[in-house]
Specification:
- The structure is a single chain.
- The chain is an alpha+beta fold.
- It is 29% helix and 33% strand.
- The protein has eleven helices and 28 strands.
- Strands 13-21-20-14 form a four-stranded antiparallel β-sheet.
- A hairpin with a 5-residue loop joins strand 8 and strand 9.
- Helix 2 packs antiparallel against helix 4 and helix 6 crosses helix 7.
């Protein structure tokens, strides 16, 4: 039998050749597509700030942008109150070339192959518009440094109103001064949000002082005053009193505020101008820096009580002092014992502290128009305890010698009253201020009891 077609073996061979050719074509197309969409250049049609950048590599685009914007600097005028500052745009701003290059190169490289090809074809044919803007960004560290310099020039601290005394003793209020402070956080936001502006107005806050002239207007005269005497021959103690007086003098206490003597005086150390002078330690007078400031506490206490202010913290000495009646003293010690009082009046008070002759004075000024009474203190002694003498053998002394190591002081139990008199000097109120108990301080005598022949005292 005769066959009119191509032999089967030949057909299979032709089919195989066709499939090979088809596979080659598909492989070529896939390879071409793969190489095309993964070219290391930006696709045709992509623009940056309206400029065609297709065909550029990321490095070429980066260099192109740097060259394009290299000369595009400008001056920015910054207005702050009545001052102007001119800076270069490049001082605090940078063009974000990296971001623009990344976005341009990334276009057409995300998603599946079909979508990528469509995006590439659309942008290349103009059916899709892709324009990437190069935007300036702020160098916040440099901007913050610039604002710090402007703030140093603009900022002005508020100044409290004050009190001065005329030659005739008349009180005069020194007007307060409003301060100004650059709001650096808001200013940074202004610069950050407006990089295209050539003029920027930065916000400045007015700073009101704590004490204004109006607040001090009610201070019309002396509300109370008190003084204590001291031995001016004791040079170091006198210097300590002067240092403390300077720290207190001029202090203004607003209504509701608490005066802390420890806080006002600060540490009683050499660096703060204090000298060694006698202080009470374990019932004995020993030298230490700041000796004498307890007399300050006592004087301020008495002035504050007589101004009818609320004493919130007060401690008495370990034994009565000579410059005030028993129970009418106050002491401080480091940060452990403090003297505090609160301004319970409706107006501020002004404290004047000074030394005149051998007396330390504290005058409290306030609204003297409402001062229609006089306050005095009275001590009621409930009990007196006599000290005893204690002897301690000390063989380091010469035989028959004894010395007084510690002087004796009587013990007391007292009540202290606040007496309030009206303008006619009539007692209208008596109230218990506090109760004090002073333990007796026994005398201590050191001796070598072999043949006692003499007594030598140290005080």
């Amino acid at each position: 039998m005769i066959s009119n077609g191509v032999p089967g073996k030949s057909r299979r061979k032709l089919k195989s050749i066709f499939l090979l050719i088809l596979l080659a074509i598909i492989t070529f197309i896939c390879t071409y597509v793969f190489l095309y969409i993964n070219r290391p250049v930006i696709y045709k049609g992509v623009k940056v700030n309206g400029v065609e950048v297709g065909g550029m590599t990321p490095v070429e685009l980066q260099n192109f942008l740097r060259k394009t914007y290299a000369g595009e600097d400008k001056d920015i005028t910054i207005d702050v109150m009545d001052k102007q500052y001119v800076i270069a745009f490049s001082d605090i701003y940078r063009y974000d070339f990296k971001n623009a290059v990344g976005r341009a190169y990334t276009f057409g490289r995300e998603g599946n192959v079909i979508l990528r090809l469509k995006d590439i074809a659309d942008v290349g044919s103009g059916r899709q518009f892709v324009n990437i803007e190069v935007k300036p960004t702020m160098d916040e560290k440099r901007a913050a440094g610039l604002l710090e310099k402007i703030a140093a020039d603009v900022d002005k601290p508020a100044v409290n109103a004050g009190i001065v005394f005329g030659s005739n003793g008349a009180i005069k209020v020194i007007p307060h001064q409003v301060g100004y402070k650059l709001d650096t956080d808001s200013a940074l936001n202004v610069l950050k949000s407006s990089p295209d502006d050539v003029n920027a107005v930065l916000p400045v806050e007015e700073v009101e002082p704590k004490i204004t002239s109006r607040m001090l207007a009610p201070i019309k005269g002396i509300v109370s005053q008190y003084s204590t005497a001291f031995n001016s021959a004791d040079a170091n103690r006198t210097l300590n009193l002067k240092t403390a007086a300077n720290a207190i003098n001029g202090y203004i206490l607003m209504p509701g505020e608490v005066f802390s003597l420890n806080k006002v005086l600060g540490p009683r150390v050499k660096e703060n101008g204090y000298f060694e002078a006698p202080v009470i330690v374990n019932g004995k007078m020993v030298p230490d820096y700041g000796g004498g400031v307890c007399q300050i506490a006592t004087t301020v206490f008495n002035a504050a009580v007589r101004a009818n202010l609320d004493i919130t913290e007060r401690y008495h000495h370990s034994f009565p002092v000579s410059y005030v009646p028993v129970g009418q003293d106050a002491t401080i010690s480091g940060d452990v014992l403090d003297f505090k009082f609160k301004n319970t009046s409706e107006n501020p008070i002004y404290i004047r502290a000074y030394i005149k002759g051998n007396k330390f004075h504290v005058d409290i000024y306030g609204d003297s128009s409402v001062n229609n009474c006089t306050i005095r203190l009275s001590t009621e002694v409930l009990n007196v305890v006599e000290p005893v003498t204690e002897y301690e053998e000390d063989k380091t002394l010469q035989p028959g010698t004894q010395i007084v190591e510690r002087a004796s002081h009587k013990g007391y139990k007292v009540n202290v009253y606040k007496l309030i008199y009206n303008k006619e000097n009539k007692l209208i109120k008596k109230e218990l201020l506090h109760k004090d108990t002073y333990k007796p301080v026994n005398q201590i005598i050191k001796r070598n009891s072999n043949m006692v022949t003499s007594v030598k005292t140290t005080e």
